[in-house]
Hints:
Elements: H1 2-7, E1 12-16, E2 27-29, E3 40-47, E4 50-52, E5 55-56, E6 61-63, E7 73-79
Antiparallel strand pairs: 1-7, 2-6, 3-4, 3-7, 5-6
Amino acid sequence: VYTNLLNTKQPLDLYFKPLVNGFENNILRVQPDILPPGSVRISDVWIDDVAWHKFDADRFTVELPNLNYRAKIRVRLASL
């Protein structure tokens, strides 16, 4: 999967279903540990299949909305 992301430059989608109020300050951190620093960043985020723009592409963080259910989060990583 990471070879595809880094070598062929194909984006990688990561999926999350975080617990309600499960993260400090409603910030979801999505940075994979194994990737070299500066090699990828967040390009897009969707919450329940709707585009979401409250994220920091370089810090790999997504600001979660204040919801009372476990939303489906999709985060797309892209090679630089």
